[in-house]
Amino acid sequence: MRDTVPSKVFFAPARVTKWKYDDSMPGKLQRLLKTFNLSAVFDKDEWVAIKTHFGSPGAHRIVRPVFLSRVVDAVNEVGANPFVTDTVRIKGLEYLKVANSNGINHLSVGAPVILADGLFGNDNIILPAGEILGRIAVASAIHDVTAMVVCSHVKGHINAGYAGALKNMAMGGVSSSHRECGWKCGRGSMHTIGEGELTWNEELCNYCMQCVELCPLELLAFKDDKLRWDKEHCWRCGRCERGCQAGAIHLPGDDERFMRSLAEAAMVVIKTFRPDKIIYINFLTEIQPECDCMPAADVPVVQDIGILLSNDIVAIEQASIDVLKEKHLPSSMAEDVDAEGDIFKGLHSKPYELQVSEAERLGLGSRRYELVTL
Fold this sequence. Notes:
The protein is α/β, with parallel strands linked by helices. The protein has 13 helices and 16 strands.
């Protein structure tokens, strides 16, 4: 924990009360960025990574390009040089095409759009981690750049339950694999903490092929009506299990160790920067039940809430979790669960708050915050 003084988290509500640009979401984001005084964070001519998630084919409810362009404009105004980036989730060239189809390109955001770990997802630097992960492969462009704005779309997640800035830093700042140690020192080491062995129940399987279609690395196939799994190259993302509506696939993991590993990986990425060279923006809009990695976007489960900004990753995550406990939207997946005020607990049954408390224990910030509403 940094100190006993609450960290400031700036909040712009989504509700529009005046028909003026300044009251629009892009306008409010601009005002948030001016309130924060970026010139005190970024230096003239400094390269600044705008870290986001490019989405997937069919998963279009990402941080909208109009918001990314406002962040780019604000960084440009202080004389720094921004670029928009993410790490490889599917094959690199295909992922850039996905980004473009979702509206993220150099024309829409006003800055270069690059893959932080190269076209093949193995351009990274191995760094020592902690007692859980041991070592982890940080994307080279994120490792080498000196400053960053982390633009996170708050949503649900297969493994994390809740996904915001911590997940964006941990899994988004780390490559899926490394040239020598493969997925075991990439983000796959977080997903199942190394012990995940996929099992398939033939009696339950209805051969819908969703697991095959969901695999980002094309490592699942049916041959002679038997599921074949390439365990050597699989980085255990869990999409196959989550997508199997028949319950025929199981990929075991340890929720508590996973939450702790998420905080540990985020710590490694954050420590490649000098203190106070990262700001975090959480977008609580079009809030999905699943990660933006999935090949479809469902109806949002929570009403649009707004945008949060802070230089404390723990504080912004705690604030996001707190303000999320609003009314759930009808005609969404929220109707299918008994959420009792916590939609992501109801959807995923994961102890997601552990990632935040562990990040605080590791010294990444404080859960004590002061919410400053725009």
